[in-house]
Design goal:
CATH class of the largest domain: Alpha Beta
Mean pLDDT: 90
Strand content: 15-25%
Distance between the termini: 50 Å
CATH architecture of the largest domain: 2-Layer Sandwich
Oligomer: single chain
Bound molecules: iron/sulfur cluster
Structural class: alpha/beta
Shape: globular
CATH topology of the largest domain: Transcription Regulator spoIIAA
Number of helices: 13
Amino acid sequence: MRVALKALGCRLNEAELESWSNDFQRLGYSISGDVSMADIVVVNTCAVTQEAVKKSRQLIRKSQRINPRAKLVVSGCYASLEPEIANKIDGIDLLVPNRHKDRLAQIVNDELIGQAMPQLATVAGATALFIRGRNRAFVKIQDGCRYRCTFCIVTVARGDERSKAIADVVNEINTLHQQDIREVILTGVHIGGYGSDIDTDLLTLIKAVLAETDIPRIRLGSVEPWDLGENFFELFANPRFMPHLHLPLQSGSDTVLRRMARRCKTADFRKLLVEARSCVRDFNVTTDIIVGFPGENNDEWQENLLFIDSCDFSHIHIFPFSPRQGTRAAALPGQIPTAVKKIRTQQLQQLAPRMRIRVLQHYNGRGFPVLFANHTGTTTNGEQVYLGYTPNYLKVKFVSNDNLSLKNRIHHVRLTGYDEQEAVLLASSAELQDEAVTLPAGD
Ligand code: SF4
């Protein structure tokens, strides 16, 4: 039987798709990249905003329309927060809430297919990734969150913190590496809380992954800024641990941060950036900012812009605030009019590229080992175009004028400029060298 897996939303939803694909293969199913050809379709939904809920419902209906014959399984945050409503959508055969999703493949097999599948020797692994054109793997290390940021529905949808054992994470990464995956991203809902339920912590996990695997590149998913304990930045002395962190600031105004119930003030965030940049060469930081949080007055907004501008982020994910039923922020007074949110979002969208160019200009002429993902096209002169990422998560476009295939390879290139249109760094081929995995981050 063939299973098609679809997801919306965060990297954790993506990581769950990868582990479900392994689980289904171990049960003797095969993974299909085509919904119309599948016998079972699994949709991993998102509910972070009302818009995400709308898109989740659309994806469920679309899957049903494309293949009404298939068994339709729905999981994820939307299915967990509003099961009654979700269940009213025609064609759903099984709803698996978040608290059971780690066993989804077995539940589908037992409750929906109801047949004992032969234990085929199908080697689970990266098939689903490659089917979906990916060569970096999200590895789920934990789920749930103990905090209650006032805007966040995820902590409601995903429940308490629960961590995967260190040995299981290490085994999963070694299996992926055997399958030619060269980079893993450790992800979860609140990865800073990793180990809180199994008497360990994130630092110990990362040390174990560095010591017990040989995968060339290990990256962290989004991590809350207040979770990086002492000596954390010493980990980056190992060139296999990628010198980039996505640290959600959410706002550059302390009074707004207080209304968000965030545990990091701007002074703490500043201190963290200074420490990171003094300890780790080429340390790159990206972030999330919520625009138009309830009560955000003009002074707070200006304060926010000034602070963000002083942080030198290479990229900002901008989220206009949308009240999410079930969160405290949705009921806060002083909801900001849409028109004002729009103006502020535009102001931040103007600031972000300026800041990006300021950060990227420092890299011109430098050499970096880049993991090239996909071949994205051919120029009119027949040159091959590849996209990839530096260790510190800067996107690089490389035009190769020889027939060397760079797909899923790590190559050392020299950065030659910046394409503002595509927001990518450009690299020359002059410096192309055979794959050297653990070259220092940059020369
Ligand atoms: S720490 Fe992150 S996941 Fe937890 S409540 Fe806050 S925003 Fe949500």
